[in-house]
Amino acid sequence: MDCGVFSVQFVVTEPVGALQDGTHPPAHLQRIDDVEIASLEYVDWFNHRRLHSACNMTPPAEFEQHYYAHLRASQLVQTP
User: Is the pTM of this model over 0.85?
Assistant: First the structure.
């Protein structure tokens, strides 16, 4: 399924890679707790509120929920 939930590992490691070039983090991201919260807020937005064209303009998490609900329903119908 192309609209799967976004990888947490990518979002958490990407800001670290961006800081390895010697630049200083923005003022609101001075502590590791700030970076973790910002990363998790981004993951939440990316999975639950972002509209994705490949998912019929629905958030990926909602698309995945409907996909599995439809899959379970079709399996119940096919069960003898």
Answer: no
| Spatial CB neighbours of 63, under 8 Å, sequence gap ≥ 6 | 3, 52, 55, 56
pLDDT digits (tens, 9 = 90+) for 27-78: 778 888 988 999 999 999 999 999 999 999 999 999 999 999 999 888 877 7
Q: Which amino acid is at 55?
A: C
Tokens of 24: 């200083």
What's the chain's Rg over C-alpha atoms?
18
Measured CA distances, 22 to 10, 26, 30, 31 (Å):
20, 13, 14, 16
2, two tokens: 């192309």
Neighbouring CB atoms inside 10 A of 63's CB total 20
